[in-house]
Structure formats: structure tokens, C-alpha cells
Write a structure and sequence with these properties.
Elements lengths: L1 E7 L2 E6 L9 E10 L4 H6 L13 E9 L11 E4 L2 E2 L5 H4 L10 E2 L11 E5 L3 E3 L6 H4 L2 H12 L9 E4 L3 H12 L5 E5 L2 H9 L4 E4 L5 H9 L5 E4 L4 H10 L5 E4 L11 H9 L3 E4 L12 H11 L8 E5 L4 H10 L6 E5 L9
Parallel strand pairs: 10-11, 10-13, 11-12, 13-14, 14-15, 16-17
Antiparallel strand pairs: 1-2, 3-4, 3-8, 3-17, 4-5, 5-9, 6-7
Helix pairs in contact: 4-5, 4-10, 7-8, 8-9
Bound molecules: zinc ion (2 copies).
One zinc ion binds next to helix 2.
């Protein structure tokens, strides 16, 4: 099969590799679509994967193509979304079904081969059947949608709560989408990229601020009469983090969602703000799959099937395996506007459903 193989940092090549064979309990999936994640950019260009060579790509969907030994025949030809984390099932976290916290996991697309290819193998435990009416392009976005849903669910939001989101990239916009779906109040987005804000405006968001033009703290506090109930830091920037603590209202909640670009130092004033306002600071990591309190992957698929979330407008580019490298460069260099970029396999059209 054809695959996009990372041989060393910055050395991503499209080449012919052996077709993977499913082990007992696994299936082989013919990939339909796979999103480029923000985390793929450092993975490919600066940090590398755990070993080389590796096929990256972890936000994907496809159609079951071949069944390994012992797999129920009902999976044959099923359209599926795939949870990319392979838990050890031995550690304390796994015993609590907190698979995102597993101490010794494997991961399709970073620790082992992923989906920037024509096929990938995965255990049936990791498969979710895609319901009727949900396209395989949408199914490829279940992973980031679950991450965004989990981040917002961490705050246990009430309807009408005002929310401020730093970062209007794909994850920030997916959080905004859930905020809309779940009936939150004012949805405010801050970014430093005017194109990203223009895109958010096209999607219907009204409260948008260019952080280079004005101060997000004053803006958000004025708009909400005392500050938003919830602030999501989805930029991974120490400046945004300080502003999040300054903007949030008394007893409000701040979620740390963006991967930090470096150290995240806090000024004394921002530290005081957390103490005096009794801010609840929440970490968020990955999403809940088949665990407590709710399988957020099923929640996402149900919402897509019901039409209460719509993510197709977030797709800014579709590309082939051969075009993946140039599209990753666009994300790295910000040389052109992008939001969600999907690799689409022309031999397994994601629009067939
Ligand atoms: Zn990701
Ligand atoms: Zn484990």
C-alpha cells in the first residue's frame, strides 16, 4: 500500500509499504479520511515520533476491510471511527477505565503506525460504528470533537454561562460549537490571526477579538458584566493564560486545553487573581472513551447523527497523501489560512454514506 512514512525529523516520504495484516482481535480498516492534528506539526518537524520509521495520523475514519481471527462477522464492511489510543489494560488507570491516563499505552499515529496511509489495523475494542447519515469525513473529526467536548464538560457548564475561548483554530471552534449546542450564553473568541477570526465570523460567531488590536481582558469583562463564567485556554500561550485568569469572573472556571508552546510562567498579579477570585483551574486531557462518566465518543457520534453539531464547514482543505507534506508546511509556516485539513483517500470516498 501507499503510506506517508516519517523516517526522521522533517523527513516524511510517500512510499510503498507492506499491507498490514490484522492480528487476532483486530481488523484492517481502509482509511477514508484522516485529519492533520496540531500535534502532528511538532511530531513531524521538531520532536519526532517515539521511533522511526512511523506512519503518523490519528484522527481518522474508514471502512472495515479484513477481519482478524476471532472477530465477529458483524464488523465486516462496517463504517467506523477509531479511538487511536491502545491502553495496556493492566495499570491502575486502566482498571478505573481512565484510558487517557494509562501509564503504558500505545497510540496509532505516534507510538505505532497510524492513518496517513491506505490501510491501518486496529483492535475491535477501538472501533465505533458510524451511524447512518454521518459521513466518514465527519467521522474523521470525532477525535478532536471529543477532545473539545471533554474540555467543556470538565466545567459542568450551565445553560446561559458566558464563555471566552483563547484560540480560534479547529479545537477552539469545536469548543465554541459545543457551547452553542449546549445553550451557553455569549461565546467570545480571541485570536491573533485575523484570517481565523474572519473564518469564525463566517461560521456565525459574533463576539470576536483580535488580541493584537485590543485587550481581551477588558473586552470580555465589559461584554459580560463582571467576566465570563468559563474561560478556555486553547492557545497554549502564557500571555493568554494570564489574561484568562484576569478575565474570568469571581468563582469562575479556567480550562487548560492548549498544548503549551514552552514554559507557562504566571505573574504575581495573575496568581493573585486566581486566589482572590477563587478560580477553579481545570486540566483536560484527551477524552473519555468507554469510561466514566460517559463515553464521549458515542456522545459525539450521536450529536453528529442528530445534526446538533455540524463540523463539515470547519474543513478548509482536503488533500492526497502526496500533498500531505505541503499542507503540513502551510500549518507550520502559517503561509496561508487553514482550519481543519483532511487527508482524503480517493479509493475510499468518505462521501459514500
Ligand atoms: Zn490530535
Ligand atoms: Zn494502562
Amino acid at each position: 500500500m501507499q503510506a506517508c512514512v516519517l523516517h526522521a525529523i522533517g523527513d516524511l516520504r510517500v512510499e510503498e509499504v507492506p499491507l498490514p495484516e490484522p492480528a487476532p482481535g483486530e481488523v484492517r480498516v481502509r482509511i477514508s479520511a484522516c485529519g492533520i492534528c496540531g500535534s502532528d506539526i511538532p511530531r513531524v518537524f521538531t520532536k519526532g515520533t517515539y521511533h522511526f520509521p512511523t506512519i503518523p495520523g490519528h484522527e481518522f475514519s474508514g471502512v472495515v476491510d479484513s477481519l482478524g481471527e476471532g472477530v465477529d462477522a458483524e464488523w465486516a464492511h462496517a463504517p467506523v471511527a477509531i479511538f487511536p489510543l491502545l491502553p495496556c489494560f493492566k495499570c491502575e488507570a486502566c482498571a478505573q477505565q481512565a484510558y487517557a491516563q494509562c501509564e503504558d499505552y500505545n497510540y496509532l499515529g505516534s507510538r505505532c503506525d497510524g492513518a496517513f496511509a491506505e490501510y491501518v489495523c486496529a483492535p475491535t475494542w477501538n472501533l465505533l460504528r458510524v451511524p447512518h447519515g454521518v459521513s466518514l469525513e465527519e467521522a474523521a473529526m470525532v477525535e478532536p470533537l471529543a477532545v473539545a467536548a471533554h474540555a467543556l464538560r470538565r466545567t459542568q457548564p450551565d445553560p446561559g454561562d458566558n464563555i471566552l475561548i483563547f484560540g480560534a483554530g479547529p479545537i477552539g471552534l469545536m469548543v465554541a460549537q459545543w457551547a452553542k449546542t449546549w445553550g451557553l450564553g455569549k461565546i467570545m473568541l480571541v485570536d491573533e490571526d485575523v484570517e481565523k477570526l474572519r473564518f469564525a465570523k463566517k461560521l456565525g460567531y459574533k463576539h470576536l477579538l483580535d488580541a493584537r488590536e485590543s485587550d481581551p481582558v477588558e473586552w470580555a469583562r465589559t461584554k459580560t458584566n463582571g467576566g465570563p463564567h468559563i474561560v478556555i485556554e486553547a492557545a497554549g500561550s502564557p500571555i493568554a493564560l494570564g489574561q484568562a485568569f484576569q478575565a474570568v469572573r469571581d468563582f469562575g472556571k479556567v480550562v487548560l486545553l492548549g498544548n503549551p508552546a514552552g514554559d507557562m510562567p504566571l505573574s504575581q498579579a495573575d496568581y493573585w487573581a486566581v486566589m482572590r477570585k477563587e478560580v477553579t483551574v481545570l486540566g483536560t486531557w484527551n477524552s473519555v472513551y468507554k469510561g466514566y462518566p460517559k463515553n464521549e465518543w458515542q456522545l459525539v457520534l450521536d450529536a453528529l447523527a442528530a445534526g446538533t453539531v455540524d463540523v463539515t464547514p470547519l474543513i478548509s482543505h482536503r488533500c492526497t497523501l502526496d500533498e500531505l507534506m505541503t499542507h503540513m508546511e502551510i500549518m507550520r509556516d502559517r503561509s496561508a489560512f487553514s482550519n481543519k485539513i483532511l487527508y482524503v483517500n480517493p479509493n475510499c470516498s468518505p462521501k459514500q454514506d
